[in-house]
Amino acid sequence: MDSLDFDTLAVRAGIERSQFNEHSEALYLTSSFVFQNAAQAAARFSGEEAGNVYARFSNPTVTAMQQRLAALEGAQACVATASGMSAILALVMATLQAGDHIIASRGLFGATQQLFGNILNKFDIETSFVPATDLAAYRAALRPRTRLVFVETPSNPLTEVVDIAAVARIAHEAGALLAVDNCFCTPALQRPLEFGADVVVHSATKYLDGQGRVLGGAVAGRAEVVEEVFKFLRTAGPCISPFNAWIILKGLETLRIRMEAQSAAALELARWLETRPGVRRVHYPGLSSHPQHELAMRQQRTGGAIVSFEVEGGREHAWRVVDSTRVISITANLGDTKTTITHPASTTHGRISAEAREAAGVSEGLLRIAVGLESVEDLKADLLRGLSG
Ligand SMILES: *Cc1c(COP(=O)(O)O)cnc(C)c1O
């Protein structure tokens, strides 16, 4: 399978047919598996014989999803989890100990910030947050016990682009792992392992499913790291349901064509927004006005499907744009075929202090759009209604 192209792997990797020779991937809704005899049960439990035992450890549908995602990321191994957050938690629990230190890029997904900043510190794991694009800041934050560098690129909602290869070098010189949350780009647009990352984490809830149906997550990357994550999962239990894994497995088949269509629409919308009076600034890595446009184009195949823009007139104007939509969904979720709009300052970033929000660049006039598969003309008309010149 290794020599096959991404598009072929997306529809064929991970298939193991049952005795029924089904063509489509089977969904195994079973929590346990039976053994031929007591000796086989013992061999399976001890790990002497490979095979399924109990769905907290493995399930054929989950295995298929893991193998397909590993193939798409170019990873040696992959384990699936109940959600994106449980993927991040499992990675941390598997690789860190009390007293260890994390360096994370600023502007992480809100729950990841909460996990690192407010939960892990109870277990004596401290996190330093650094500006996503400031390489010197990563280096300056290193400590003897820095074990993990964690970045998200492009960042949410400002689409800042982290130089994965440069941060990988900094992490590795210090003996730390680099983990990249690849949720926004997916392997269809960006493969962080090729730039030196050790592991990729996913919220499969977003583009990997792609149609807003189920929660899921994954950790993919170097085999020895993924093996440690698996040991944590099989014991602690935040594993994915076979049904959710099946939905995501089938979602992967259309991932590239969805990502490319949604990116193309996002670029068109971003270019159009740049020309609108009343729009102060557009944040989109695919625009030549983006401060890391060149880096983004080296690292990603497109600018992605998330566009943020700042309107003049602060919250009042921003809320009017939101409230004037009739097609676009008002929801903080992303990665769906349906376009969504959110006002970060009053939703995803609402619990952060106003000063911290301004420092992070999340102004009162900022709006984030996750572009779906509707006609771009309909999306423009939907936004135009609330945009004043
Ligand atoms: C949604 C999201 C997560 C968390 O994933 P869940 O599946 O909601 O747990 C993590 N990182 C990013 C970038 C996300 O957008």
TrEMBL record:
GO biological process, one term: transsulfuration
Keyword Transferase assigned: yes
Keywords for the protein's UniProt record, in alphabetical order: Amino-acid biosynthesis, Methionine biosynthesis, Pyridoxal phosphate, Transferase
InterPro entries for the chain: Cys/Met-Metab_PyrdxlP-dep_enz, Cys_met_metab_PP, O-succ-hSer_sulfhydrylase, PyrdxlP-dep_Trfase, PyrdxlP-dep_Trfase_major, PyrdxlP-dep_Trfase_small
Cleaved signal peptide residues: none
Pathway where this protein functions: Amino-acid biosynthesis; L-methionine biosynthesis via de novo pathway; L-homocysteine from O-succinyl-L-homoserine: step 1/1
Source domain of life: Bacteria
Enzyme Commission code: 2.5.1.-
Transmembrane segments: none
GO cellular component, one term: cytoplasm
PTM sites of type N6-(pyridoxal phosphate)lysine: 206
Catalytic activity as recorded in UniProt: O-succinyl-L-homoserine + hydrogen sulfide = L-homocysteine + succinate
GO molecular function terms attached to this record: carbon-sulfur lyase activity; pyridoxal phosphate binding; transferase activity, transferring alkyl or aryl (other than methyl) groups
PROSITE patterns: CYS_MET_METAB_PP
Required cofactor names: pyridoxal 5'-phosphate
Subunit (UniProt): Homotetramer.
Sequence similarity: Belongs to the trans-sulfuration enzymes family. MetZ subfamily.
Function: Catalyzes the formation of L-homocysteine from O-succinyl-L-homoserine (OSHS) and hydrogen sulfide.
Name of the protein described by the UniProt record: O-succinylhomoserine sulfhydrylase
Source species of the chain: Pseudothauera nasutitermitis
Taxonomic lineage from the root: Bacteria, Pseudomonadati, Pseudomonadota, Betaproteobacteria, Rhodocyclales
